[in-house]
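Consider the tokenized backbone below.
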């Protein structure tokens, strides 16, 4: 199958490498001004992997859109602009797979909604979610992930095309729950990093159990299945997000707690704002997400925020 990947960062480059590795014909697109793409053009390498010569590299978006399946892996807040650019090029009858986690700030839209509203109606949209780190996959360490869509036939086709001994894909059955769960686990990852930065890693058990519960309540209020919070896209991704040294969100939280700068993308920073707004709209209390929002956006003292959570009324949920 001829497949294009839009986005040449950590995940976009891995997806390109992986799909080529399992036998597909790949084109990787990156903007002409992208430092990541410039490095690939010059050396075919980044800090994580080397792209074989079988993969075509391009700065031409129309060339990338010529293939039937297009995987998108970019910053979540840039998705709407990209999809509108794609639609303006007259792109029709394509399958778009979003391998990214986030919620659009301001509108609070899930990413499949963002893409579906911007792209031509003839195009189909699916999401690729779940745990794993590029460093581990490239080293041959397997994991399980999820494909979800409103189109059941499309889910089955993509799972057959994308599955291998390295990644086993499961059929998603709750697009709302899986997208909200996948995005919000990055907020929990920041919280975990803050605990690490304060030397309070022992509280991660409480963080995981209570974090999952508050996100389950939010998913239910949004019309999804609250049990999705306990699946691969949220709780099932905690090991990779809450504990792993490879987690950008955990590392961001740890650096923040120590007063250090962190120069890599941590999607949870943006998602936190959107999740808290969704909670307000739905009347769902989100104590952990709200505490992280206070720390990141309102200047709340970190130790004060942790103490407030730890000493919440015992008749109330953590």
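A designed sequence for it:
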């Amino acid at each position: 199958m001829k497949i294009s990947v839009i986005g040449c960062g950590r995940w976009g480059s891995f997806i390109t490498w992986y799909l080529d590795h399992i036998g597909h014909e790949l084109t990787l697109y990156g903007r002409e001004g992208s430092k990541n793409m410039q490095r690939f053009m010059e050396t075919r390498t980044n800090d994580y992997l080397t792209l074989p010569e079988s993969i075509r590299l391009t700065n031409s978006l129309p060339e990338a859109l010529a293939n039937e399946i297009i995987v998108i892996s970019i910053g979540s807040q840039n998705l709407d602009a990209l999809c509108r650019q794609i639609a303006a090029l007259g792109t029709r009858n394509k399958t778009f797979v979003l391998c990214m986690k986030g919620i659009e700030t301001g509108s609070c839209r899930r990413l499949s909604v963002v893409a579906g509203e911007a792209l031509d109606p003839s195009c189909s949209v699916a999401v690729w979610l779940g745990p794993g780190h590029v460093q581990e996959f490239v080293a041959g360490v397997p994991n399980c992930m999820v494909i979800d869509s409103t189109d059941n036939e499309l889910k089955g086709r993509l799972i057959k095309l994308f599955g291998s001994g390295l990644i086993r894909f499961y059929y998603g059955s709750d697009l709302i729950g899986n997208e909200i769960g996948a995005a919000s686990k990055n907020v929990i990852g920041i919280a975990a990093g803050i605990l690490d930065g304060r030397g309070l890693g022992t509280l991660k058990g409480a963080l995981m159990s209570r974090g999952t519960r508050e996100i389950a309540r939010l998913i239910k209020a949004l019309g999804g299945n609250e049990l999705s919070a306990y699946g691969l896209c949220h709780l099932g991704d905690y090991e990779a997000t809450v504990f792993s040294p490879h987690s950008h969100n955990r590392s961001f939280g740890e650096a923040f707690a120590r007063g250090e700068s962190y120069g890599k993308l941590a999607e949870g920073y943006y998602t936190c704002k959107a999740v808290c707004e969704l909670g307000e709209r739905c009347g769902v209390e989100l104590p952990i997400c709200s505490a992280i929002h206070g720390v990141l956006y309102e200047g709340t003292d970190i130790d004060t925020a942790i103490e407030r959570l730890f000493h919440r009324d015992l008749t109330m949920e953590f």
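The radius of gyration is 19 Å.
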